[in-house]
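Chain and conformation:
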Amino acid sequence: MFRHLFLDFFLFILVKVIMLTNMIQNWLSKVPKELMTYFKNLIKSMNNWEEEIFNYFNSPITNAYTESLNCLIKTRSQY
């Protein structure tokens, strides 16, 4: 039972990541060549951080709460 649920979940995530990869590749193929220089930094960042970007979709957890709390503490300590 547990093994079956795990495999279903794993396949769901795998399909989601494959679909996302295909969507990004599709978008990149539609960018006109003359505009590609404007997207150079974005494309480079996406290639450099691809694993981290896709990991978010596997486990949508960020450190936004911690960063926000740190900002509040820093702001309050200035007074």
The mean pLDDT is 84. The chain is about 75% helix and 0% strand. Residues 63 and 69 are 10 Å apart (CA to CA). Residues 2-30 form the longest helix (29 residues).
